[in-house]
From TrEMBL:
InterPro entries: Ribosome_recyc_fac, Ribosome_recyc_fac_dom, RRF_sf. It is found in: Cytoplasm. PANTHER family: MITOCHONDRIAL RIBOSOME RECYCLING FACTOR PSEUDO 1, RIBOSOME RECYCLING FACTOR. Residues 107-264 form the Ribosome recycling factor domain. Keywords: Cytoplasm, Protein biosynthesis. GO terms for cellular component: mitochondrion. Responsible for the release of ribosomes from messenger RNA at the termination of chloroplastic protein biosynthesis. The keyword Protein biosynthesis applies. This is Ribosome-recycling factor, chloroplastic. One of its GO terms (molecular function) is ribosomal large subunit binding.
Amino acid sequence: MSIVRAPQTCSLQAAPVHKTLVFRACSFRTSGRAVVPIEQRDAASRMSVVLFAKGGKGGKGGKAETAVKEEKGGKVAAGGIDVQKIAADAKKDADERMRKCLNVVAEGFNTIRTGRANPAILDKIMVDYFGAPTPLKQMGAVTVPDAQTLMIAPFDRSTLRDIERAIQESDIGINPNNDGERIRLVMPPMTQERRKELAKQVSKMTEDGKVAVRNVRKDAMKKAEKVELPKDDKKALEDDIQKLTDSYVKKLDDMSKTKTDEVMKL
């Protein structure tokens, strides 16, 4: 007798496979420190991870305090500080402030009489105009008819006496001549003693300018100290600011020599 087995059927069905797989961010601990996926970190954090993975300073692991890397064409210090931008801004600010110091000294030099007619000697003279101190050059037109004479034509003729009084009370050392319509200032010949006094004024203005420039340098150095720059970059910035200071001090010395020669020239 033969036995015929009935064919067996399998009732198992394959589970459906989802086309979209979702991976959730996970964390794991290494030596007690949690590390999250690098994709979720910002630029500064990624840099810290790389530094730690490479062993940081000395290759033994830890934070490299003066670590610097190149990112997007600029030099960036640990913590996301743009070293090049900070240095450029600091030098630009110092340069602008030192240039202002130079301009102040130059304006002061213009007010020193040298024996030749120069309208700039009137810049600091203030006229009492209806109780309000007003710059003389706003009260009238100043012209130079010849090398030894200044002419002042007031916009308001009634202010002639006020302008004359202001000139007499100033320290320019010139006696005004009022003809009822205009005021004439004739540059008197200066004595050697007077020239020496003016040369001393030039020297004092120059020294005041140098002090102002050095104060700008000192302030720039203090600002640099407040930023955590790498040691080498901080030293480079200080050297650049010192060179800038030296250049402006030299410009002041050159200006002083030129003005002194002009004052002492007979």
